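Researcher: Next sequence.
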Amino acid sequence: MRLSRRLLERYAALAKEGSWRGHTEAILPTLARQEGFSLEDLGGGRAWSRAGRRNWYRNTRSSLFLTPGSFVYRPPVSEAYFHEAAGAFVEAGLLYHPVKTQVTEMGPVRQAVRAEAEGGVRF
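Model: Next structure:
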């Protein structure tokens, strides 16, 4: 995620006032749009992506957890980063979700992602 200094300063001021709360992945694009800043999806395949930056990652839109795909939280593409195991990343030139090696417990969301990836119930 890239932010302009102006957007970051505006967000900081509104957060300090208590006007905007929540997860930054939802708040920042909403605030950017509300306040008239530009917004771009870096690598998606729809209107928010510039023509030269489309399809840099893959996801399954019909899946609640977007699996299978290259930019998904779980299941991981690899337990190693690209520079450690480039062969695990099958398709070159795509964005892949960062490895979350520190995650050891399997919470309910992770259980659902794994079940779906293993052919379980689709949402």
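Model: The longest helix spans residues 5-17. The chain has two domains: 5-34, 43-123.
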